[in-house]
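hey m, so remember when u said the tokens were messed up on ur end? i reran from scratch. heres the input so u can diff it against urs
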Amino acid sequence: MLNRRYLLMAGVFGAVATRLSWGTSPARAAETFPVTHTDAEWHKLLSADQFEILRNQGTERPFTSELLHEERKGNFACAGCDQDAFLSSTKFDSGTGWPSFWAPIEHAVATERDTSFGMVRDAVHCTRCGGHLGHVFDDGPKPTGLRYCMNGVALKFHTVSA
């Protein structure tokens, strides 16, 4: 028989279990990067939205990024350290609401398993500062078959001369 105490305890344990699944994966927490800052320094360098996504592995709402429809020739760089991560020639419209690419610049990003929110996926982070950029999925176009689904607020766009 269900009673209030049982429901309250189930809710508390569920909330604790969910909270423990959020945040940095153990492998990434132990990784070191060429660019490092304290949380206070990151707060000064980044907007509140950028901090939440890059440092706390957040996700921006779909269809809100200014970079979603960016079609000029250039590079998409990590907003945390300005390392180029994706070429505009690899960008495509995935219809998901986030800027998507079929390949990163070599050695610019790395991945780790992300099991937050009850899902199993591969999180993508910058190899220079460790900032969370988004996730990669295996439903992208040729030639790689991959879809790097990035948070636009975690990226900066730099035009390149023709």
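this time it looks ok to me. Residues 4-21 form the longest helix (18 residues). if urs says something different then somethings off w ur setup not the seq
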